[in-house]
Structures are given as structure tokens and as C-alpha cells.
Amino acid sequence: MAVSHRVLLLGPAVGAALLIAARAQPDPDVTAVVNAAAAYVKTYQEQLTSVVADESYLQQIIMLVPNDPAMPRQRRMNSELFFMFAPTGEWMAIRDVIRVDGQAVKDRPSIVEQLKRLPLHEVADSFLKHNSRFNLGRTYRNFNEPTLVLHVLTDAHRSRFSFERKRVTRAREGTLVTVAFAEGEGPTSLIRDLTFGAALSGGEFVVEADTGRIRRATLTAKAGPVRLEFTTEFALDDRIRIWVPRRFRERYEHGTPPTSFEGAFEYEDITCDATYSNYRRFQTSGRIKKD
């Protein structure tokens, strides 16, 4: 009985020691987390390529000043989103809009045919110009990819950014670290405005410390009077067995919010919300051309 009694007393004591050790565990170093996330993105670029998903995309005008009665206040688009990684190192998502507000797009170019005969960046540019006509509001924009923010962690861009650990959350599935990033001045930038000037980016990643996997990412930037914010949420897809964009939200603000409706000013606030489903892999009968 004495031995048994000692065992019973030892159980809680060991448990308390383990709890103290867990609490004393040091927070992950930001450099290690960023390096793990960069390694993850490098592999992820190769995983999330030749993949297509169905996209349901809703645009809404929250405020438009001065008012334009001819401008719809919302628009729903159904598209296929093609994730591509070219031999030259380019990685992008190309949107093929199929229906707008329930009506089939009649003059759709064929993305598969273009991929057979044109360099990837030419195909992307062609579809960006084609799709921009469906945007609501006065703010011109020709990019909105759920994976754009991940370029911050690529070799081509990472050196221009500074990183700071903001929060550490420990859960059963592992340690999640929120890392803030900010782009510094330089000859190039991730985003350009209409005059090809730099629009410096900032934002946050929520990263699994052990794997470098990105769970959630937010990108912000200011280009002249336009402020934008992109948020991408990732989830495991059971079909292709990788983590994929599941939801992508955008917000564009142009000008300063009015405090009254007197005087002459311009302002608009536009939100977009995309969800993705039916991920699958595809192949073209040709190959992606280099420049």
C-alpha cells in the first residue's frame, strides 16, 4: 500500500512538472519560422501547379461617391481558377470567367489553347485584361490572386521584407506563429501602381512553426489614393491531399471616407469574397512555353 500511495502522489507531481516545462518552452524564433515558411512555399509552388478549382466570386459596392445609378451594386462570377508554375520560375493563378450574374460569357478565350502556344506570362496578361472588364467600381485593378501574398516568401522577393513575430498560439495541432511583414524601399516591389511606381506591401502570415505551412495570410498595400487588403484562408483538400486556398477576401478603398455629403469628393469602398471547391489536376496536350 505504501508503494501504491507513493505512486499516486507522484502522478500529480510529474504532471505539474510537465505543465511547468510546457509553459517555459521558449517561443519560436522568427527567423526560423520565416525560413520554414519559405521552404514550405518553395515546395508548395510545385505542388499547387497544373491544378484547377471552381471559384464562386461575389463583388459588392459598399459605398460609391458620387453615385453612379448605372453601376450595379453587386456582381457574382463563376470561374475556373488555374494555378500554374512555369519553368522560368513564374507562379500565378489565371482566372477563366465562365458566367457573370448567371449569364454565360460568350467571347471566352480558350486558356488551354493559349497555354499550348504562348508563354505563361502572355496568357496571364491576356486573361487579366479580359477579366478586368467585369470589375465593379471606378478603381482599375487587374490582379487578385489568392496566392499572391505567398510571393513575399519566395527567393525573388523575400530579401526586401522585414519580419516580426507578433503572436504565438499553442494548440493540440501544434504551435501557430503570427508573423508580420513589411516591404522596404527599393528598385522593385511586389505590387505596382498604374504609373509603375512601387506600392509597398505589408501584412501577416499565420504559420505552423514545425512545418512552415501557411494557414492564413493577409496582404495590405497603398497605391496612390487606393488602399487594398487581401486575406487568404487555406485548408486541407481531401481530393488532391494538399492545403489549398479555400476562401479569398478583398477590399478596395479609394479616397477618404466622407464625413458628410456636402462638397465635391470621390470615394468608393468595394469588397469581394471568393470561395473555392472541386480542386483537381489537369494537363494540356502541349507544354507550357518559355519566353
Strand content: 35-45%
Query: Judging from the principal axes of the Cα atoms, what is the shape?
Result: globular
Structural class: alpha+beta
The CATH class is: Mainly Beta
Q: For the report, how would you describe the main beta sheet? A: 11 strands, antiparallel
What does this structure look like?
This protein has 291 residues and is of the alpha+beta class. The protein has a single domain, classed as outer membrane lipoprotein receptor (LolB), chain A (Clam), CATH 2.50.20. The protein has 4 helices and 11 strands; from the N terminus they run ααββββααβββββββ. Strands 4-3-2-1-11-10-9-8-7-6-5 form an 11-stranded antiparallel β-sheet. A hairpin with a 2-residue loop joins strand 3 and strand 4.
Question: How is the secondary structure organized here?
Answer:
Elements: H1 2-24, H2 30-47, E1 51-65, E2 74-85, E3 91-100, E4 103-104, H3 111-117, H4 120-132, E5 161-171, E6 174-183, E7 201-208, E8 214-223, E9 226-236, E10 243-254, E11 267-281
Antiparallel strand pairs: 1-2, 1-11, 2-3, 3-4, 5-6, 6-7, 7-8, 8-9, 9-10, 10-11
